[in-house]
Amino acid sequence: xxxxxxxxxxxxxxIYQLRGVRYRYHGxxxxxxxxxLEISHGEQIALLGANGSGKSTLLKLLDGLLAPEEGYMRAxxxxxxxxAAGQETFxxxxxxxxxxxxxxxxxxxxTVFDDVAFGPLQLGLPREEVKRRSQEALELMEITHLAxxxxxxxxxxxxxxxxxxxxxxxxxxxxxxxxxTASLDPRxxxxxxxLIRRLGEQGKTIVTATHELEIVPLIARRxxxxxxxxxxxxxxxxxxxxxxxxxxxxxxxxxxxxxRSWLLTLESETEPQxxxxxxxxxx
Amino acid sequence: MSLRAGDQLGEPTRAxxxxxxxxxxxxERRQLRHQLGWxxxxxxxxTEAIERAVFTExxxxxxxxxxxLDPRVKLGMFVVTVLxxxxxxxxxxxxxxxxxxxLAARASLLPFDFxxxxxxxxxxxxxxxxILPSIFFTSxxxxxxxxxxxxxxxxxxxxxxxxxxxxxMRVGDAVSLAVLLILTTRWADLLKSLQVLRxxxxxxxxxxxxxxxxxxxxxxxxxxxxxxxSRTVGLTSGSEQRTWIVAALVTLMNRSFQMSNEVYAAMCxxxxxxxxxxxxxxxxxxxxxxAFLGTALLAIGLFFLGRVIV
Lengths: 283, 310
Ligand SMILES: Nc1ncnc2c1ncn2[C@@H]1O[C@H](COP(=O)(O)OP(=O)(O)OP(=O)(O)O)[C@@H](O)[C@H]1O
Ligand SMILES: [Mg+2]
Fold this sequence. Notes:
- Chain A has helices spanning 55-62, 80-84, 89-95, 103-106, 112-122, 127-140, 156-168, 186-201, 216-219, 238-243, 245-250, 260-270, 274-277; strands at 14-25, 29-40, 44-49, 70-75, 78-79, 96-99, 174-178, 205-210, 222-226, 232-236.
- By secondary structure, chain A is α/β, with parallel strands linked by helices.
- In chain B, helix 1 (5-14) packs parallel to helix 3 (38-55), helix 5 (91-107) packs parallel to helix 7 (158-184) and helix 5 packs antiparallel against helix 11.
- Chain A binds chain B through residues 60, 63, 65, 89-90, 93-94, 97-98, 100, 102, 104-106, 108-111, 113-114, 117-119, 121-124, 127, 130-131, 148, 150, 152-153, 166-167, 170, and chain B through 51, 55-57, 60-61, 186-188, 212, 215, 219, 259, 262-263, 265-273, 277-279, 281.
- Adenosine-5'-triphosphate binds next to strand 2 and helix 1 of chain A.
């Protein structure tokens, strides 16, 4: 099918290049300031940051929905400003999919099925293929039974699952997820974590913005931390970043009072001998 | 007659619910009525009903007669019939047409009172206001009775009454037709058939975004009512309510506007370029052709009936 063939991305090829990227909403509210970043195809990245640190904004930039106000940015071999202005958006969005933080925004059709089928239909795929892909995406998110329901009648977590399915049905090469596990129950969260891993093994690029530190090592091999000053504070492997207590506190990702047990596990992992002399004081 | 919009509009849409949900929502609604004043009651009822009835497309998805027709054909049937109704001057023809519409509604599994009540409650009421002066300000002809207000002699004549009846009936027919078309056709299919009729792309895009906007607006309104309900302790006074509603409306417009921008972005993010594509796969079948021919004949018949009998 000719529709499907868009210049394939090579594994390891640099697909995003950002230099000194700055973004303000309405020319006033600063959301990102001086972002330098490179992403290669096939990377699984977790994007961490406190509320308002610009995670969603960065994902929208990566999806070509917003254009940086200042700085250099290329995505999948295109100038992102041109994509945001409407050039080649169609081919671009065939390769990049974004799950929005607010599922209400993303579900706009009369039924869940229509929403999941929306993307494949826009691609101009034949009816059978649209149906197959939609069904597959519904099954992946375990919401086949909700196919005929109206999206706004669903629970928060069900909406989130439908929103994720509506992007999966597009089968993009680059998947951007904005807090996908928020408001999911543990089993669904686990399903999603496994799905992200599986997609990663298939060689897709996945960027996940999240607040949930415990899933980070499971879904990412690289971690980006956005600081409250709207810059990238750290960029590294999950193990090193999640153990850097000072960094996590500074980026407002953990709070010394709230995350005592988390810090304990960290310490016990860094110093393997610790358990014998440190009493299990948290009980 | 006590006109409680919440009741009138709320009832029919409950039909599709499962029994447990139905019982629950009824109870909730009763509680809600207790807590909110009548303005809010009415608004809450109306918005909820519209949201459920229109946006779930529950009637458009039931296996009725009109639902099975090609939307392009349906649009054609609609245009032809509306033309016939607006050109006809015969009360009999318009009444016959209404009878035909009722049959079509029945064949399309629309709940009877839903269809009839919704049309006749609102619109002819407004049509009546428009037409009222022309009933009484008559010249010539025998008046049925006469009102004398100062220098004015007012009174209806048989001709003015008939004219009014024809007008109201015509509006009723036209509105029923529109309701029939909208309720039995999925929105995306309707937009797609406009595309076939060569309605400009930008107009269709505008329509589809308006629809999303209205949806978000209603959705936000419902959210507001819920949020307010949860924060309301005790009864509120009328003036308090009005202040709240005005303030809420402004916020609502802003918020739903911003959300519809986001929705548009989300549509673009999934490859939307302005062309409406739908999953439904319509092909012209004999049934469609027959339905269209039948409607065309009916329309022509009604038109000539209007010429023959008054
Ligand atoms: N539509 C908007 N208009 C104006 N300012 C905005 C808008 N959206 C976001 N902002 C501002 O931009 C900054 C970054 O917002 P963003 O949504 O990217 O944060 P985030 O990291 O996703 O936060 P959260 O964890 O709460 O989702 C915030 O200070 C926010 O107030
Ligand atoms: Mg966010």
